Amino acid sequence: MIGSSQARKKNVETHTAKKNSSNYFLCFEFTNLMIKDLQSGATLFAGVEHPNYNVRTQEIPRTVSDLLAQDLSK
């Protein structure tokens, strides 16, 4: 598994006279070693650890992790 993540909530203005909504973003912080492992083909897992919302760690599809590895190499 390649490390853990920290979720951060970010408020973005998304309301108009016709629409009122909220957006939430997750921030995943990778160390240089995690990035190298991902670029070398390590399996990527993600989950959420929060008292009010717990999601078991799940494997991220290879196509997604490959695209992430490409983005992190730029």
Q: Which segments are poorly predicted (pLDDT under 50) over 5 or more consecutive residues? A: 1-11
What's the order of the H and E elements? EEHEEH
Mean pLDDT over all positions: 78
Spatial ordering of strands, largest sheet: 1-2
- Cα radius of gyration in angstroms: 15 Å
User: What is the number of domains?
Assistant: 1
Question: Which structural category fits the helices and strands?
Answer: alpha+beta
Calculate the terminal CA-CA distance, rounded to whole Å: 23 Å
Largest sheet: 2 strands, antiparallel
Helix content: 25-40%
Silhouette: extended
Strand-residue proportion: 15-25%
What is the β-strand count?
A: 4
The number of helical elements comes to: 2
Structure description:
With 74 residues, the chain is of the alpha+beta class. 26% of the residues lie in helices and 18% in strands. It has one domain (6-72). It contains 2 helices and 4 strands; from the N terminus they run ββαββα. A two-stranded antiparallel sheet has the order 1-2. A hairpin with a 6-residue loop joins strand 3 and strand 4. The protein is extended and about 50 Å long. The protein starts with 5 loop residues before the first strand and ends with a helix. The model is unreliable at 1-11 (pLDDT under 50).
